[in-house]
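@channel sequence for tomorrow's demo:
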Amino acid sequence: MLNVNREREVAGKEKKLSKFMKKNKIDALLISNLNNFAWITGGGDSHVRLTQTAGVCTAVFSGGKKYIVTSNIEGFRIMEEEVKELGYILKSYNWWEINTKEEIIKGLIGSGVAASDDGIFNTKNIDSGLMQLRMVLSNEEIKKYKWLGKRAGKAMSRVCKKIKQGSKEDDVSASLAKELFKEGIQPSVLLIAQEDRVMRYRHPIPTQKPINKYVMVVLCAKKWGLIVSLTRIVCFGEVSSELKKKHAAVLRVDAALNLGTKAGVTIGDVFKKAQVMYKEVGFEKECMLHHQGGPTGYNEREFTGTPDNKEVIQGNMAFAWNPSITGTKSEDTMILRKNGKVEIITTTPNWPMVEIKIGKEKLERPDILVKQ
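structure tokens (generated this afternoon):
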């Protein structure tokens, strides 16, 4: 059973948030987006629709107190299941009195300076500032993240090993979603591409196309607001020489990205290592066809890396690098620990691995799973 001290996690975050508010002279802060709500509440979930960005409630921090503002439909569930014993005060309104929400929030703000994570009610949007707070993970978050990564990896392994020739992309997607939902995990991205579509599309949403030769399976999985990402390739019969060459090349780019991720260097520095490696393995132009990934945590990617990005990497940040070469891809979620260790948290049990050496460092990356 996962042993996490939620109260300690939340207290640490609220301390960081208080310092942030003082530094930026903010008297009242409104948090509505799902990712920030999950972050500040230590895993609270304010969604109803799977597709929404903003939740069904707004957390308000004002005057040394914290409130949940929501309709009478949502109030009891949020208070009893998402923020219980965290010290929030409920301010609810009748669902049909839409304007009452604004009146309540303005009353809590008073005459002070207000900010928010979505610009609601003409407040200053400081979501980018909150991103800086949430990117460095606490010890409690790392425990949860590793739990999530382990189960997402197991689900991926189980599903991929059961794929049969003739299976449809939608079959794989459905099986993977089922594995995750059984664990209380939400799939936020499911991309499946058989041998024809993987050559044409970088973001192939699943279809009824049958899998004959090989398939790429891409997953982003979410719990407690945290999101992990991973990709695996499954091939039936002998792997073609072209696919072997491409996959071996993309694994070297992957290793260069992950091993190049070190505290004190910039995202741009890491991206440039990928550019160099793409050229070294003979696929220089492939870098231009899809982003390479970047920091992750409470978004699939907090932002994607670019050569000119000046963001300085810190210990306990999470990354999901995803280099691709037409027809294949390599991706996992890792945490750069404060001791400098690259810890892959989405390993797939009993999967064929390849040890890649970059300079004096080594990293195991997932090979193609071959099924006869």
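heads up for whoever presents: The radius of gyration is 22 Å.
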